[in-house]
Amino acid sequence: MRLLLIEDDIALGEGIHQALGREGYTVDWLQDGSSALHSLLSETFDLAVLDLGLPRMDGLEVLRRLRDSGSNLPVLILTARDATEDRIAGLDAGADDYLIKPFDLAELKARLRALLRRSAGRAHALIEHAGISLNPGTQQVSYQGEPVALTPKEYQLLHELLSPPGRVMTRDHLMQLLYGWNEEAESNTLEVHIHHLRKKFSSDLIRTVRGVGYLVEERR
Amino acid sequence: MRLLLIEDDIALGEGIHQALGREGYTVDWLQDGSSALHSLLSETFDLAVLDLGLPRMDGLEVLRRLRDSGSNLPVLILTARDATEDRIAGLDAGADDYLIKPFDLAELKARLRALLRRSAGRAHALIEHAGISLNPGTQQVSYQGEPVALTPKEYQLLHELLSPPGRVMTRDHLMQLLYGWNEEAESNTLEVHIHHLRKKFSSDLIRTVRGVGYLVEERR
DNA sequence: CGCCACCTTCAGACTTCGTTAAGAATTGCC
DNA sequence: GGCAATTCTTAACGAAGTCTGAAGGTGGCG
């Protein structure tokens, strides 16, 4: 799950960033509205957490433009306690949920989970492919009826490769999924994870497309 | 993918040049605005990375003249942290994205990818010709329904020859596509790659135009 | 008929990817 | 708050794939 956090308060941002990172999300953090909008329009995220009071471009403006561009990305907004109008305006502008500062990190996590569940609900259901069954709700995976234990990174990779299968996922795309732009690991971690997946399933499940990336064949 | 980097700071330029080279781009690097503009107008690139503070001709000026000439080449500009006006002026002058120094190389890579994706998006779609179907998104190619494995260079060549077919691509043009002007291969590599393509498809797919270059016939 | 451009082939250099294993980092548990 | 277990990263090396440069062959064109 890749998530964009837009928050200009350094202390708060740091806190959220860490907390969500520990939850297993890949979190990218920006501190102004204009670059946030840029990223939202050009990269792929699963969710955005958006503070409304931002320099350079107001959060509301970001949200409005995002929706104008046709995106239905789940967005949770953060507002100050007394800014009731902002909240309403936020929902009007297309936010999916809001939270009033100061808030409890646990509540933020809960709401994100709920949001993701809801948005996944649009296209939920088990993913079944090549003997693998993957349950996005519980993150449980089985192979030919037997449960398989996957680590978080393995799960993320497999999930990405299987939804939908048949498409080549570039190395870049996968690296970004796992690491955002924090620090791209300058080693071969991707290959190592792929290797582990192949070992846990079948060695020909994931095909290498040399110089490009990996794919799971559509029909097998 | 051929890319022009215009950056006068040697250390930074070196860093970017290497990093992008390692990403598989063909990178040409110039250090002043006037030669940059010249190259941009006379050669073909897929993208330009343009520092705004340059000797001999300001980056903004380069950008403006480039746009005046009718080019819609994707351009990413680099600006100093506090030069807000420059940034705005840059976007006004037709930049597609910007990055504030100092920046993270990973983020630069991500933004370039996004830009290229966006610009490719303008004319995406499968390319179908003479039984060949080529998917620019995934770099997958098939011939008469069967997938064909192409190496990166083969793919680049085929893609160039097919978009659109019917035009003679000069040897010079193709060589530049593959190698930029860094190190022109002093051998017959082009012929070798063409040979491989003919072997993987049909030997009369690519016609030789003696003394000029190669072409794929328009209708077959 | 001879020159020149291009074709074909191939071996060695070079890159990229797979595989391991060990140590670092993180997490969970008491 | 410290220990144990899991997970992730790094690095080294080997395997496989790709590119290059060179040599010799073929065919068009004057």
From TrEMBL, chains A, B:
One of its GO terms (cellular component) is protein-DNA complex. Residues 2-116 form the Response regulatory domain. One of its GO terms (biological process) is regulation of DNA-templated transcription. The modification 4-aspartylphosphate is found at residue 51. Residues 124-218 form the OmpR/PhoB-type domain. Pfam families: Response_reg, Trans_reg_C. It comes from the Bacteria. InterPro entries: CheY-like_superfamily, OmpR/PhoB-type_DNA-bd, Sig_transdc_resp-reg_C-effctor, Sig_transdc_resp-reg_receiver, WalR-like, WH-like_DNA-bd_sf. SUPFAM superfamilies: C-terminal effector domain of the bipartite response regulators, CheY-like. One of its GO terms (molecular function) is transcription cis-regulatory region binding. The keyword Transcription applies. Residues 124-218 bind DNA. Keywords: DNA-binding, Phosphoprotein, Transcription, Transcription regulation, Two-component regulatory system. SMART domains: REC, Trans_reg_C. This is DNA-binding response regulator.
